[in-house]
Write a structure and sequence with these properties.
mainly alpha, Growth Hormone, Chain: A, 2 domains, 17 helices, globular
Length: 396
């Protein structure tokens, strides 16, 4: 039940609970879109930024690292420091942080200032991710939380599918600095929109704030976090190096279409998850991890087959697309009033798994070749299913 509806009389509150607050959830989905696009856009603009700034692509790539460090180092402390504050102004502050970080990229030629602005963007992202899912869940009745969270998170695959390719195309027309400038303007517009469509949600009272030890001790949460780490580690071990793997089947020329296919099937996956999550969460987690394992197995067995690659990428998107919604809904339900602190652990764990997947995949690629990458996924996903299948209460 949303904080806004708590003031309504009983019958009116029940009628309101039957309707999802779509405008507010769309605003949260736009916030997720801006966050993912701000994080990942450097990868799509790497060549023109490197050329215009006279810096190697490896140095430009460190702008991604600075962003990730901002989230990793500050998410938990920021959530603990701000847990008593009203949620809406805090979320608007995070959006303003994106506007500040992206605007700096439009005018500075200083690499040090760019690194600093990306760190600020990462700080804003860590705060927003810790807030967003809890905000969506507090806007609706408990039986609608899964659908609300799925809608709020649909901005993630949309940013990967549409936002990054559109940004690369726009950079060719008007230059990469204008792309950052446009993102800054979009962030500011979303600040105003959020003030209009998001209901006020209070902070957490002092007696309910808890600490990390109490959060981790809650029944089922350890299993949910374990699944998150294993699944995201598996995803990033291959996604980071999908180009050299695609080359094994001579598919490097269609990499953009493969990534688009992955994005489209991810959107399908999250839509299907949103429709079923509030009734069949445990079955969905098992099914989606099973699909991911099937995709990894096909690519492991037939690495030189373009058909296996295309089918594997499509199945991979279907299997992984809804995982963020499943994990974060489970965290919300298991963590109770401490959900913002619990979500900050998701932010940290997710980013660690991204870094770990990139490191593990890179080590395999250097030492054993691209053919071994999907076998790492098979091992990780078997382990994931061994955690998922017996842990029914974690996904209730």
């Amino acid at each position: 039940m949303s904080a806004l509806d708590d003031t309504l009389p009983g019958p009116a509150r029940e009628a309101t609970a039957a309707r999802l607050p779509i405008p507010g959830l769309i605003a949260l989905a736009c916030a997720a879109f801006i966050t993912v696009l701000t994080e990942s856009i450097v990868a799509g603009l790497l060549p023109p930024m490197s050329r215009d700034l006279g810096l190697g692509e490896s140095l430009i790539g460190q702008l991604l690292t600075a962003y990730a460090l901002g989230s990793l180092l500050t998410a938990i402390p920021l959530v603990k420091l701000t847990s008593h504050l009203p949620r809406r102004p805090l979320l608007m502050t995070a959006l303003a942080g994106f506007a500040l970080a992206n605007s700096a990229m439009t005018w500075t030629d200083s690499y040090a200032l760019m690194l600093a602005s990306r760190f600020v963007g990462g700080v804003a992202a860590g705060l927003l991710w810790a807030l967003l899912v809890g905000y969506a869940s507090r806007m609706v009745a408990q039986h609608q939380q899964g659908r609300a969270i799925s809608i709020a998170l649909v901005g993630i695959p949309l940013a990967m599918t549409l936002g990054i390719p559109a940004s690369a195309w726009l950079a060719q027309l008007v230059g990469w600095r204008w792309v950052f400038g446009l993102m800054s303007l979009l962030s500011l517009a979303l600040v105003g929109c959020s003030r209009l469509v998001l209901p006020p949600v209070p902070g957490v009272p002092a007696q309910q704030r808890g600490n990390l030890r109490e959060v981790l001790a809650r029944p089922g949460l350890a299993a949910v976090y374990a699944v998150m780490l294993l699944a995201v580690l598996a995803h990033n071990a291959l996604y980071t190096y999908v180009a050299p793997f695609a080359a094994l089947s001579g598919s490097q020329g269609m990499l953009d279409r493969l990534l688009l296919l992955f994005g489209v099937t991810s959107v399908v996956g999250i839509v299907a998850t949103g429709a079923l999550i509030d009734r069949w969460m445990h079955a969905l987690v098992a099914a989606e991890m099973g699909l991911f394992l099937l995709a990894a197995g096909a690519m492991a067995l037939w690495p030189a087959s373009q058909v296996a690659l295309i089918a594997g990428v499509a199945t991979w998107g279907l299997g992984f697309g809804g995982m963020s919604a499943l994990i974060q809904t489970a965290v919300v339900r298991r963590s109770g009033e401490q959900q913002d602190l619990a979500q900050s652990l998701v932010v940290v764990g997710w980013n660690l798994a991204i870094a770990g997947g990139g490191a593990a995949g890179g080590m395999l690629l250097r030492n054993a070749g691209a053919t071994t990458l999907p076998w790492l996924l098979v091992a990780l996903l078997v382990a994931t299913l061994l955690v998922v299948l017996p842990a029914k209460k974690a996904w209730a």
